Amino acid sequence: MQPRPAPQPTDDAIAAIRRVRAGDRDAFRPLVQRYQKPLFGFVTNLIRDADAAEDIVQDVFCSAYAGLDAYDARRGSFSTWLFTIARNRCFTWLARARTSLSEPVLLEPRTPLADASERELFQRLDAALDALPLAQRTAFVLAELQGLPHAEVARIEGTRLGTIKSRVARARERLRGLLFGTEAV
After folding, report:
1. Checking phi first, is residue 111 left (phi over 0); if not, alpha (psi -120 to 50) or beta?
2. How much is the pTM?
């Protein structure tokens, strides 16, 4: 899995937020377009249900739009705020679903033409991610797959930078063991 570059906070995001607050509802559309894919990837990697992930991402944007007055750029970037909302929605969904995190739910292959070895690799990666404790998986997905800086992940998780670095390092170590033979998935 290639890490995706995190959307960078820009002055145009702040300008769009100001326009929405001033009553221009259409100014929110570019924010949705910019953050929809990264949020969907994050949510899908946490809950392993693409249909539910679509619903959660839509809920995140609806909540963000409705609560836009609560966003304070001095406390963090807009993407940090969105990922925090998404993280909380995922945790709520997981608690309601009471899904066993040790049993992987596999997503469809990227394309119908994907060969068997590619599918097997992704199944192994998904199962290995699912085997991680939720705190490690969340930190790993945000930092390594979404490409967010550790400091931003710490703000999203509401914890110290050192804790995030430890979680990501432990997740990498455990994934290596799961993928390369020292642990069973």
Report:
1. beta
2. 0.63
Residue among 98, 105, 85 nearest 42 (CA): 85
Whether residue 117 is predicted with pLDDT greater than 70 in this model: the reply is no
Domains of the chain: 11-179 (1.10.1740.10)
Query: What's the pLDDT tens digit per position in 32-54?
Result: 999 999 999 999 999 888 999 99
Single out the residue of 76, 79, 94, 99 nearest to residue 142, CA to CA.
Answer: 79
Q: Return the structure tokens found at 158.
A: 């509401």
* Alpha helices (H) in the chain, listed in sequence order: 11-21, 29-47, 50-66, 78-97, 116-131, 134-140, 150-157, 161-179
Question: Contacts by 156-160 with C-beta closer than 8 Å and gap 24+?
Answer: 156/80, 156/83, 156/84, 156/87, 157/87, 158/84
DSSP 132-177: S-HHHHHHHIIIIIS---HHHHHHHHTS-HHHHHHHHHHHHHHHHH
Max CA distance (Å), the chain: 57
Computed from CA positions of residues 150, 110, 44, 15, in that sequence, does the dihedral angle turn out positive or negative?
A: positive
